[in-house]
């Protein structure tokens, strides 16, 4: 049994008990020797941390649990660092979702101009965390859940020396849904960027089942945080795969904008309500398991993805996970230093991409290439505070585009988030 020390940065997240639950389910292969829960929000850190302590104690895990707001001390001795931070917390997400609608733009947490501003706020903070990892625990693995995960991971792998993989629960949900429908022995090819991905092939007994399943009306379940407008069958045939839930913002953008205009509450406001309800439940000293309400936050199988990946690295399992890593020739239409979301063999030395058969479509190539250009400009803008890099990012993104509208929205959002955008105030 491998003993590990894990540090969670952003441990005030109500998702944290999901992570602890995942470690408890792997006690036969992983012993969580020390768990450090770091967060700058004292109230949430203490409430969530107390439940995590009770869960570990009730399971007899024998884990030392430390709660702190000090980054440097939290990193000392860490084997794995999990980042799940939200710079500006849910009030900042509310601004990301509500301001763009005034300009006829989609406001969403991880894509479009809302996701763009989340990246601008987040990358400098992740950069500081990486500096301290390099100084204090340079051999530790950073498992990044912080959204937008693909852009954040692209920054870490190209601009720091930290060992890192980006992770998301979307791939595991989609692949499991397909295999539950056609059989667990189905060969499923998944590829894309984080929150811009497709299942491009489903093979069983040598037969390609993708288009047959289109005709049968099967589709992977939509994420709990997204209103399901579905995908037209002709849309699926045209793009050549099952899109992830987040591609509804691209393929059904008018419907999504209508929801944003008509809904009484933004998703951020719904999450605020769910979060407070969860925190109220977490205060109950008798509670020592994760509550079912947690699944309504859209984090289904989050712990499965995170703990399985950590288990594979720690125990050199060399099994396959879908992760955000450097392309390095895996997809020939992407550059080597592009972070892509693909399957990889995971072991003690990291990720070895699984060769991808040429099943992707020209549509996937084109959209991935354009959005990766947006992501690269976003990283540049976040690092430098350069308005021109920001303009280029917005002009490239399919959900932003129009220069005058996006620039007006950009200026309002930049002012609204000024407390978290010091790079733009030089």
Structural commentary:
This protein is an alpha/beta fold and 426 residues long. It has one domain: AglA-like glucosidase (LDH C-terminal domain-like, Alpha-Beta Complex), CATH 3.90.1820. 46% of the residues lie in helices and 18% in strands. It has 16 helices and 13 strands. The chain has helices at residues 16-24, 42-58, 71-75, 89-98, 112-136, 149-159, 170-182, 210-216, 233-239, 248-251, 253-262, 267-282, 302-314, 362-384, 387-396, 403-416; strands spanning 2-9, 30-38, 64-68, 80-83, 141-144, 163-166, 187-193, 196-204, 207-208, 242-243, 319-326, 339-347, 350-353. The strands form 3 sheets. A 6-stranded parallel β-sheet has the order 3-2-1-4-5-6, with helices on both faces. Helix 14 (362-384) runs antiparallel to helix 15. The longest helix has 25 residues, at 112-136.
Tell me briefly what this model is.
The protein is α/β, with parallel strands linked by helices and 426 residues long.
Return the structural class.
Answer: alpha/beta
Average of the residue pLDDT scores: 95
Level-2 CATH architecture: Alpha-Beta Complex
N-C termini distance: 51 Å
Secondary structure: number of strands: 13
Low-confidence stretches: none
Helix content: 40-55%
CATH superfamily: AglA-like glucosidase
Bin the strand percentage. Answer: 15-25%
The Rg value, from CA coordinates, equals 21 Å
CATH fold type? LDH C-terminal domain-like
Major sheet summary line:
6 strands, parallel
For the record, the CATH class is Alpha Beta
Number of domains: 1
Helix count from the secondary structure assignment: 16
Shape: globular
> From N to C, what is the helix and strand string?
EHEHEHEHHEHEHEEEHHEHHHHEEEHHH
Order of adjacent strands in the largest pleated sheet: 3-2-1-4-5-6
